[in-house]
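Our preliminary data section would be incomplete without showing what the modeling component actually yields. Below, a chain of 411 amino acids is followed by its predicted structure, encoded as tokens that our downstream tools consume directly.
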Amino acid sequence: MSRWIITIIIFTVIFLFVELYAFQVIKTLTRNRLIKWAWILVSVAIYANFLYTIFSTPRSAGQTVGFQLAAGLLLTFLIPKLVLLLIMFGEDVFRVIRKLFSIASSGETEMFTSRRAFISKIALGIAAIPFASFLYGIWQGRYNYKVLKYQVFFEDLPEAFDGFTITQISDIHSGSFTNKEKIEYGVDLINEQQSDLMLFTGDIVNNMATEMDDWIDVFKRLKAPYGKYSILGNHDYGDYVQWEKPEDKLKNFQAVKDIHPKIGFDLLLDEHRYIEKNGQKLALIGVENWGKGFNQAGDLDKATSQVNKEDFKILMTHDPSHWEYRVKQDDFNYHLTLSGHTHGLQMGIEIPGFFRWSPSQYVYKQWAGLYNEFGRFINVNRGFGYHAFPGRVGIWPEITVIELKKGVNNV
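Predicted structure:
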């Protein structure tokens, strides 16, 4: 038996188990056959649409908007059903334990208790929260841009750069865009920050350079007096598409790189640039993608071959695992690293100053926001666009503004 057949059987059993338990809520709350059949037909339609999209979309097309919508609908209905499963399964455990106690007791054995309607009502009410959140995330959350501002202090920052501002954007994923008006609003919001320097930390497309064709005129409007610089992300290499010929992939990769000058960005491919102000300078370093478990094309030694150790350094590297495994303890001392990649998994809970959680934290130690270790900082941008799931739930698209300050770090 092939691995594919085994995988399909396993997932089929899992999904049937989830659907069976979720359906118990409807059975407990109503005897209306129309409601029950509507529940079943909607579920079947969503699974059928997802499977049809997967098997009808050629791998050479990459991850299409249609696939994202099918996956988004599946998650929107499946996650609440998992909530129903947990609650209903918990009630069944209680029912079984109660029955076992009854059997073990000296008194009369009780009948197996039926499911309670009020538990089903509570389960349905709780499940409605993620359902509504996912619908909002698809409809509006993916455009709910947030500007996050940080002041970061360094004792060895050149005096001329005290108060120097940097806007960081990341993970544009232009192949996912569908609403030009919303994207234009996001670009205007970036420009409103009026930062000195603008840095983009990778993933300009999902897979193909052509995804950016309709958006070049929008993103070329971005402005920064001290320049705009960029790097590549893992999606920019075309690794997630089945190409007919190797040369097609190489041609696409070159076209992706050519996008950056078209929108006014200087693409750094294991290179550095010096940013000068009032006779002083800082080193800006940009490497190709390096990620734990991903493409590791980045060559930090090459990028810094003509950079002095005593220079103040800002490093752009797409994947924060690079900082965790190679950068943060490097004696060369990278003062500030800017990354993206994680998107914060586009779903989670963040209450500033109190609590934050995302499944992303189980994969990446640095998954969103500003971190400080050994007196060195990394900011992991949550991303401007979205990918796979066509929305954002609790983890909003981000525009980061970092102000460099000369002084003692008190974080």
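The mean pLDDT is 92. Residues 65-104 form the longest helix (40 residues). Preliminary results of this kind motivate Aim 1 of the renewal.
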